[in-house]
Amino acid sequence: MNDQTGKLLVVESDDALRATLITVLGHAGYKVSTDYRGGMKAVLAFEPDLVILGGDPQQLDCCDLLSEIKGSRHTQNIRVVMLVHGSAAERTRGLDLGADDALSLPLDPAELLASVRSQLRSKQIADELGERLRFAEDSQNTNQQVVTAVHEERRTFLVGATAIVLVRIIVGLVSLSFYRRSHAENVRVFAAITRLQTGALSQQGLLERSHQNLGNQTPGTTSDQPEDNAALKNQVAAVEGRLQKIETEGKVAHEIIDADEPSVCLIHVVLVFRDHDSGLKLHYAAVTSTGEPATDKSNNPLVSLTGIGPEVHLDVFGTGFLASDDGQILTNHHVAEPWWQNDELKEMLDQGLEPEIAEMTAYFPGVTHGISITTKKISPDADVAIVKGNVSGLGIRHIILADGRNSAVGGSPVVLLGYPTGVDAILARTGAATLQAIAASSKGDPKQAWKSSHAVI
Question: What is the pTM of this model?
Fold first, then answer.
């Protein structure tokens, strides 16, 4: 895509400003549409590269549309430039809502075109990177391929102890998800705050409505004025209370994140598979000249208990947090034992393969090396487990657990910290150029990817 031939959608209710935008962008060579009556349907139909939003805080349509664009996997790569009435504070508000850039009105045509060109170039880089890494999306089907490979290998060997499993080491740790996740949560949070703020009248709006009502009163209705003023004052007080609650909860969340983030770790578990009868570990049957596993005619990698290639490893990622000074880390049962209640692995395990943990490592923010950990205790029923490692001398503060039934109150806000998508969650904070450098240096190795990403984040 050439940044001078991009498709732009203008969402602006002011006729004069909309006409100016059409003229400036049209003369610059862009294909411009102003048909946004269908909301997201119009966006999906036109498939723009960039959307220009008129950012009026008193209207919800722009904020809802921005949230939908950035929250959808089909449109999250579309760049959004918001036009705001005001200076730095309003521009910051637009960026917090999820816009890629925010410009102040009155409009400066040169600044607008420069921003459009910059955003289109960024989108082009993201699209090219996503194209090169599109094979990462196929990782969701890996376990099913392993099941197919196991069946075929067992039919080939008569020993009866041969089984097949394939799980690729995370190849292309960098994927399109780094754009999906970078703004999604902030967009939803700030869009919700916007709805609360605009769903009630501001104090200034209430006063203006009061003056208007007083001006429209006739001499015979002056007896109702005290009651109306009292009602308006009550509404103002209610609005101020709601806004103060929103501001307080937002500050509390940031304080919790700042205080506890260093204590939350990424847990990397490496699994190997051993045959129950023979005790042999599963290996790749062979490797090609480029170092890739050899495959059959269906493109399923060939693995065998008697293979000459390296051991087959399964990389699993999870989250935990330091719960004591002696290195105890609280995590999930399905992290400490990734095969627990895992339907995708159950069929393979039922055919004679036994999983073993070859390596388990915890990575804490601010610590440049991994910490070897071992399983200490696992709940047989709940999704809870305790692992332990040596954290002495690292200066990591443990998180204090709630004590007693009354420590948690139903309906209270909850702040979640962790790495739900493994290393991808870390790489999501980086730019396109950095991601390319990490992919080249790590070559699919999760440990090297962690070290590379830690150096730049």
Answer: 0.45
- Computed over its alpha carbons, how large is the radius of gyration of the chain? 28
Does residue 182 contact residue 428 with C-beta atoms inside 8 Å?
Answer: yes
Residue 203 is encoded by which pair of tokens? 């104090």
Going by the DSSP 8-state scheme, the letter that residue 263 receives in this structure is G
Two tokens, residue 327? 């290195």
Question: What is the rounded CA–CA span in Å between residue 139 and residue 421?
Answer: 13
**DSSP result, 230-251:** HHHHHHHHHHHHHHHHHHHHHH
Q: How far is CA 45 from CA 48, 60, 334, in A?
A: 9, 22, 42
The answer for residues whose C-beta is within 8 angstroms of residue 124's C-beta and 6 or more apart is 1, 3
312, 282 Cβ separation under 8 angstroms: yes
Specify whether the CB–CB gap between 225 and 275 falls below 8 A. no
pLDDT of residue 159: 44
CB atoms within 10 A of CB 10: 22
Question: Strand, coil or helix: what is 96?
Answer: helix
Residues facing 374 on adjacent strands: 388
Chain-centroid distance, C-alpha 99: 16
> Looking at residue 166, what DSSP letter applies?
-
What is the C-alpha to C-alpha distance for residues 325 and 19, in angstroms, rounded to an integer?
64
Q: How far is CA 16 from CA 12, 242, 415, in A?
A: 10, 36, 44
What letter does residue 320 receive in the DSSP assignment? E
- State the Cα–Cα distance between residues 184 and 72, nearest whole angstrom: 9
**Dihedral of CA 338/341/347/353: which sign?**
positive
- Provide the pLDDT for residue 194: 36
Q: Are 98 and 82 in contact (CB under 8 A)?
A: no
Residue 235's pLDDT is 76
Q: Exposed, middle or buried by CB within 10 Å (0-12, 13-18, 19+), for 243?
A: middle
pLDDT, residue 192, reads 37
Please identify every stretch of the chain with a pLDDT value under 70, giving residue numbers as ranges: 1-4, 55-63, 134-228, 243-250, 405-406, 420-457
pLDDT of 398? 93
What pLDDT, on the 0 to 100 scale, is given for residue 391? 94
Structure tokens at 308: 């000459």
CA atoms of 413 and 94, how far apart (whole Å): 25
| CA–CA gap between residue 107 and residue 164 (Å, rounded) | 63
> Which residues make Cβ contacts (< 8 Å) with residue 62, sequence separation at least 6?
11, 53, 54, 55, 56, 82
Strands 303-304 and 283-284, bridge-based pairing: antiparallel
Dump pLDDT digits (tens) for 351-365.
788 999 999 999 998
Strands (E), 216-338: 264-275, 283-284, 303-304, 314-322, 328-331
